[in-house]
């Protein structure tokens, strides 16, 4: 359903930057395990990657944040 996304789980150890989660617009602090996703259409580059909290990504999957 909808767009296909490549999802990669990141452990806290490899996360040294902070990101803004598009789901809740809050910061993902360095050292926090989270997911990075990008569209599986072959067009996007590294710039199209989005970092999400685990819980926010899961909630989006369930449609709470729209499509
Ligand atoms: Zn979030």
Task: Write a structural description.
Helices cover 12% and strands 30% of the residues. With 67 residues, the chain is α+β, with helices and mostly antiparallel strands. It has one domain. The longest helix has 8 residues, at 54-61. Zinc ion binds at residues 21, 23-24, 26, 53, 56.
What compounds are bound to the protein? zinc ion
Total individual domains: 1
Query: What is the average of the pLDDT values?
Result: 84
The topology string of helices and strands comes to EEEEEH
Q: Give the helix tally.
A: 1
DSSP helix fraction? 10-25%
Largest sheet: 3 strands, antiparallel
Spatial sequence of strands, sheet with the most strands: 1-4-5
Name the overall outline: globular
Distance from first to last alpha carbon: 10 Å
What structural class results from the helix and strand content? alpha+beta
Q: How many individual β-strands?
A: 5
Short characterization:
The chain has 67 residues and is an alpha+beta fold. 12% of the residues lie in helices and 30% in strands.
Defining key terms:
alpha+beta, two-stranded antiparallel sheet, 3-stranded antiparallel sheet, 1 helix, 67 residues, binds zinc ion, single chain, 12% helix
Q: What is the topology?
A:
Layout lengths: L4 E6 L8 E2 L6 E2 L5 E6 L10 E4 H8 L6
Antiparallel strand pairs: 1-4, 2-3, 4-5
